[in-house]
Amino acid sequence: ALTGNVNIFYYAAMEEVTGAQLIAEALKTQNVEFMFGIVGVPIIEVAMAAQAAGIKYVGMRNEQAVEACRLYSKFSARPGSLEAIPSVVEKAVRTSMYGRPGACYVDISGDMVNAKVNRIVSCCPPPPVSLADNTAITEAISVLKGAKRPLVIIGKGAAYGRAESALRALVEVSGLPFIPTPMGKGVLPDNHPNCVAAARSRALLQADVVLLLGARLNWILHFGLPPRFDPHVKVIQVDLCAEEMGNNVRPAVALLGDVNAVVTQLLESVRKDGWKYPFNTEWWSALKEKIAANAKISKALALQSAVPMNYYTVFHHISQLLPGDCVIVSEGANTMDIGRTMLNNSLPRHRLDAGTFGTMGVGLGFAIAAASVEKSQNTGRRVVCVEGDSAFGFSGMEVETMCRYNLPVIIIVVNNNGIYSGVDPETWKEMAKMGDLTTIAPPVTLLPEARYDEVMTAFGGRGFLVRTVEELRSALKLSLSDWERPSLLNVLIDPASDRKQQEFPWLTRSNL
């Protein structure tokens, strides 16, 4: 974890240190507060040196294919000598923060850990802030003013750039409707009157001008292409990465720079011009009509009293009880998709999910990292991890990590006995009678009503088996009141429960 403080640390009078100490001190110099890892020789020495240097070490359980990360890292290096370690670590930290943020990979030879060397290194400075060209700002305002159906899309780049204050002012001064991307949620509150996320499909399809703020036109935004977008849509693209400009859709205007700085430039121009998009347009009426229609459908599903419950019933009651400032971590298929629409975020940088690559198994690790920071800073914020049963299985043993460090994470496993859908216990038993389950059981099925709650209780946490609304609300209230240990709610839902009918199912449609 990195902080914004710029401090400089020095070794005392060129004191001789081991490679493990050098690594630890290099990280401490870059203001690293937490180290997450899995130890073994010689990593044990590095973890112990990190603790001695004042870095909090969190031992994890799920070792992913770390070597494969090299290919997808923003920067990767293998120091050729002990003397090079501090400068390589400084460059890795600096590269991870400068421009578009990203993971960096440093591979240090094991024989360097116990060798000794002298070295001094200073902390990297904060990332530089760049502005867009003023001519391009003027052009962007002209395109916005000419729009009949404008839309702002708020990406996670706006969250990373801490653009929430300037962006709120821009949206409210200009009167523009907006939708967030999954991790752009909370930059502006989901309940903001200009948020049209509940009419997302219509907003994307019919917008004639899109102001794209720190988001990529990748699969999450359907590549900016028909049938999800108007083929003639004009995109005003704001990004701090020049290489991102024009990917999939050529922008009408490219604004290269820090999102917060560029939004501030746009805000100043809008205020100077005095322009505001009218609230009484056909576009606003169409969006509000669609929001009301979708809300009616979701409410009807949420208020169903049948047992087993459906997704919408579960999320409706969870949303009523969660604190407004909690950090929500989510992964899964339907669990993540439906939860994104029903679990509101009011604050920026308070939602983590499977991200650009849709990687399952990251949720519990994200929750542990978030809970470690919240506990260290004594913020009083809860971390709630909402998982599909399949997603939980990827890293389920991390509940032991939560119990070991007394991290009061609340895990809610929405258990439908499968991936997208499963079968009930009776159907499973009948299939077993028919022969070998490896040739009979649908590939999407998992063991019905698996007791994930007992995995948590095995390590000393609280586990709840939930079948009804009453049990759900009671278990969640008890979990929210417990700050001493983690909890897991194993919420059994209808295996056939699904998302409400989608206008454009092509992205996830199966031929089955």
List keywords for this structure.
single chain; 512 residues; alpha/beta; Rossmann fold; 3 domains; 6-stranded parallel beta sheet; 5-stranded parallel beta sheet; 19 helices; 19 strands; disordered N terminus; magnesium; 2-hydroxyacyl-CoA lyase activity; EC 4.1.2.63
Walk me through this protein's architecture.
The chain has three domains: 103 residues, 3-Layer(aba) Sandwich (Rossmann fold); 155 residues, TPP-binding domain (Rossmann fold, 3-Layer(aba) Sandwich); 209 residues, Rossmann fold. α1 packs parallel to α4, α7 runs parallel beside α9 and α11 crosses α12. It is globular. It has 19 helices and 19 strands.
Q: For the CA atoms, what is the radius of gyration?
A: 25 Å
What structural class should be given to the helix and strand makeup?
alpha/beta
The CATH fourth-level homologous superfamily of the largest domain? Thiamin diphosphate (ThDP)-binding fold, Pyr/PP domains
Q: What's the β-strand tally?
A: 19
**How would you sum up the global shape?**
globular
Helical segment count? 19
What CATH first level of the largest domain would be assigned?
A: Alpha Beta
Which blocks of ≥5 consecutive residues have pLDDT under 50? 1-13
EC number: 4.1.2.63
Protein name: 2-hydroxyacyl-CoA lyase
Organism: Myripristis murdjan (pinecone soldierfish)
Domain Thiamine pyrophosphate enzyme N-terminal TPP-binding: 18-80
Note the topology.
Blueprint: E1 17-18, H1 19-29, E2 34-37, H2 43-52, E3 56-59, H3 66-72, E4 75-77, H4 85-97, E5 104-106, E6 116-117, H5 134-145, E7 150-154, H6 156-160, H7 164-174, E8 178-180, H8 200-206, E9 209-213, E10 234-239, E11 253-256, H9 259-273, H10 282-302, H11 311-321, E12 327-331, H12 334-342, E13 351-352, H13 363-377, E14 383-388, H14 389-394, H15 398-404, E15 410-415, E16 418-419, E17 421-422, H16 425-434, H17 437-440, H18 452-458, E18 462-466, H19 469-481, E19 487-492
Parallel strand pairs: 2-3, 4-5, 7-8, 7-9, 9-10, 10-11, 12-13, 12-14, 14-15, 15-19, 18-19
Antiparallel strand pairs: 1-6, 16-17
Helix pairs in contact: 1-2, 1-4, 5-9, 7-9, 10-11, 11-12, 11-19
